Amino acid sequence: MNSGRLWTRDELILAFNLYTKIEFGKMHSRNPEIIQLAKILNRTPGSIAFKLVNFASLDPGLKKRGIKGASHSSSLDKEVWNQFYENWDTTFEKSEELLAKVKHVSVADMYDIDLTDIQQKGINKKRLVNTRVNQYRFRRMVLANFQDTCCITGLQQTDLLIASHITLWSKYENNRLNPANGLCLNALHDKAFESGLITVSAEDYTIKISSLLKKRKETEVENYFLKYEGKKNITSP
User: Tens digits of per-residue pLDDT, 180-189?
Assistant: First the structure.
């Protein structure tokens, strides 16, 4: 494998695609997904891991957490980063198509998603499949952003975690898949967030409880909601 050659734009797009799907602490040469991409690109796992850490140095979310990444990102790294963040959905979709092409599979087949319930839905099948795949992608990116942890309670039971949209899907037309528009919440607090009973500040990730809940005196309301008032997210992205 040749790890010393210059990176192409397509290689960087594939590397960034992977960057969106794994948390910072797993960006190492032993990660099976990094090893797989290294084989596809004919590079060493170490070179892939280092490139991901290069991207981390450009990530404002990590900077807020005091994580600097590696300070050796190239001008092309920055171009690819900006390409994603200026037009997330279109660029991410193209990166998925590129990944599927090099893997010689369809985009939907890259993921282990149960699609049996929509096999017989006629002309809307393609749209339904795309919606299901996009939901899976968004969830994976958001959970990676928050280290598979509910940002309010710290719960790490992944089957109870939900990728919540900060701005409604319907109102974020060109940025629906951007993980920056997501919070990782447990099912209870996701429902409360969706209902406006709790909010999270976009500036400093402070948790705020609605006046409706503050009026309640039940022990359960105190334990599940009121005690988090004014606290910052346990895992800010």
Answer: 888 999 999 9
